[in-house]
What we know:
heterodimer; A: mainly alpha; disordered N terminus; B: mainly alpha; two-stranded parallel sheet; 67% helix; 1% strand
Amino acid sequence: MQRxxxxxxxxxxxxxxxxxxxxxxxxGVLLVGFGLATRNDERVYIPSGGVNVNLRWGMVLLGFAALxxxxxxxxxxxxxxxxxxxxxxxxxxSPPPNAR
Amino acid sequence: MSASHFSLIDVLILVxxxxxxxxVGWLARGAVRSARDLTxxxxxxxxxxxxxxLLAANIGLPEIIGMGAAGAMYGFAAAHFFWLGAIPAMVLLxxxxxPVYRSAGARTIPEYLGLRFDGRSRTLSAIAFAxxxxxxxxxxxxxxxxxxxxxxxxxxxxxxxxxxxxxAACVFAGGLRATVYAGVLQFxxxxxxxxxxxxxxxxxxxxWKLLIHRLSQSAINSMIPPAIYTSLWKGMGHPLTNSxxxxxxxxxxxxxxALAFGTWCADMRVMQRAVSAGSDAGxxxxxxxxxxxxxxxxxxxxIPGTLARMLGGGEAGTPYGGMAQGLIPARRxxxxxxxxxxxxxxxxDFGIATPKLIATLYPAGMLGLAVAALLAAxxxxxxxxxxxxxxxxxxxxxxxxxxxxxxxxxxxxxxxARRLTIIGIALAVVVAYLVRAYxxxxxxxGSTGSGAYAVGGVxxxxxxxxxxxxxxxxxxxxVLLLGMSSRRITAPGAFSGLVAGILAGAAxxxxxxxxxxxxxxxxxxxxxxxxYYTPLAQRLWTAIVALVAALLVTIxxxxxxxxxxxxxxxxxxxxRRMLSSDARLSWWQRPGLQGALVLLAALLLxxxxx
Lengths: 100, 610
C-alpha cells in the first residue's frame, strides 16, 4: 500500500489540543465571569433550581482547557526531542524514506 | 417554549464557539493544492483525531434530538442503539473492514466496490450515497431551523442559514481534513454543553433512584409492565410488553444487526474518517477509540429525554385529552388542536424532549453553551455529509465519466471541487424547505386522521433517516461484507445484490405500515401486507429484509458467474496478512485486544441494566 509523502499534503503540523484549550479557556472564563457577576442574583438561577451552574461548569471547562494545554505541551516537547535525536543520528543508520 | 432568557452572554459564547469551529477548520486545512486534498483528504491524521472525528460525523443534531426522543419514548431501552446497535459494528469496522480499505487503497466505499467488483457497483453505490447525503444533510438543516425556532424564536431560515454557512465554510476552507479537526471541537462542545443537563436534571428529580421509581410508577399508571422504561431486556418476548413494540428477533437482527452495520460499516462519513489516519494501526484503532465515548453516550443523549418526561409529574402516566407529560407537550395539528390516539390518549411530541429540557433547566450562560453544542453538532454532521457528497460526485461519478479529480495539483480542479460544495449545500437547503413544506401539510392531515403515527414533528423525520439507512446503507453493507470475506463473490453478483437489496427494502416499506398510521411516506402506499405495532418495528424489518435479500441474491448470482482470478483479489479480499503490522506493536496496543475489551464493556453495561 502506497503512502503519500507527508510534505505535499500535510502542511504545518496542527495540534487540535491547543485549539481545544483555547476554545474552552475562553468559554470557561466567560462562564466563570458571568457566574461570579450573577452569584447574588437568584432570578438568573431559577431554571436550574438555585444551582449556580455557570460558575461550577465554567471551572470544569477551565480545568479541561488546562489539561489539554499540558498534554499539548508535553507531546510537543517529546516530538521535538525525538526530532533532535533523529537529526543527530548518522545517515547510514537511518532507513530509506520510502521503506515501510 | 422559547427560552426568553437568551441574553448577551449566550450570544458571546455562541459566537466564540462557532468562530473557533470555522477557525480550526481553517488552521488545520493543510495545503490544499489539488482537488484530491479537498475531496479525499489526507492519510496523515493521528488515530485519536480520526476516531473523535468519525464520532462527531455520525452524532449530528438529528441523532442528538432523536436519541433524546428515544429516551423519552422508550426509556432506558434506547441504550440498545448504542451498546447493541453500535459497539459490535464499530469493532467489525475496525478489525475487519478498515484493513481491507487500507490495503486496497480505497478512499471511498464506491471506489472499493469498483476495485473489488466493477464500475456498475461503483456508480450505483455512488449515486445512492450522493442522494442519501443530500437528503440527510437537508433533514439536519430542517431540524436546526426547527430547534432554533423553538429555543430562541429565530425564524426558520435563520437557523438553516447559520448552520449551512458554518458547515460550508469548514468544507470550503480545507475539505475533509478541516472537517475532521473541526469535528473534534464540535464533539467536545456537545459533551460539555449537554453533560450539565444531568447534574441539574438529577438535582431537580432527586437523583437516580427516584428517577427509576418514577419511571416504574409512570408505567404502572399507564397500565403497562412496570419495568418497560427501566429494563433493556425484559418484555422482549412480545411486541406489546416492551416499549419498542418488537421481539427478540427484531432486536438482535434489526437494531443489533442490519441497522447497526448499515450505520457504522457502510457509512461513507465514518469510513472516510477512519481511513484518513496516518498509519494502518491508527486507522484500525480509530473506530475503537470512538467506541469508548460511545459506551457513555446513552447517559449524555438518552437520559435527558427520560428526565424531560419525568420532570414535573411525569409519573402520573400517559396523559389523556391533550395534556402534557412532564415537560413533553402534546403534538398539535396546524389549527392548534392536540392529536390523540384511538383511546383518547395524548400523542406526545417526543422530538422536542432534549431542547425542552435545555430551555427549562439552563440559566443564561449555560444556555448559550447548549445552543452552541446543538449548532456545532448540526454543522459537524452537515459538513460530513458535504464531504461525502464531494467525494462520491467528484471522485467516483465524474471519474466514471472519464474526468474527475486528478491526483496532482491543478487549480481548476480545486475550483470545481469547491463548486461541488456549493451545489451540495444548496441541494441540502432545498431538501430542508421541501421537508418543511411537506411536514406543514402533513400535520394538517394528521388532525383528521390522527393515529399512533401521525406524520409531522421532528420525530417522523428521524424515522425517515432510519428508512434511508435501511434501503441505502444496508444493501451496500451486505455486498461489502461478502466481497471482503470471500473471493468467490463476483461482480454481477454484487451488482444484482445491491439492486435486490434496495428494491426489497423499498418494496417492504411500500407494503407495510405501523398500527394507526396513514398510508403515505410512512409506508403502505401500495398495500398493507405487513402490519407492525410501531414505526420502529417497521423500519427494523425493512432493514432486515434489505439485508437478507442483498445477501441471498449476491451469493446466488455469484454461484452462477465466474469469479475473478485470485491474483486480482490480493488487495481487496481480507487476509490475515493485512494485519501484519500488528507484529510491531506491544500486546496492549493491538487492536484485537482493544476491540475485545470494548465489546466486553458493552456486554457488561447491557447486563447491568437488563
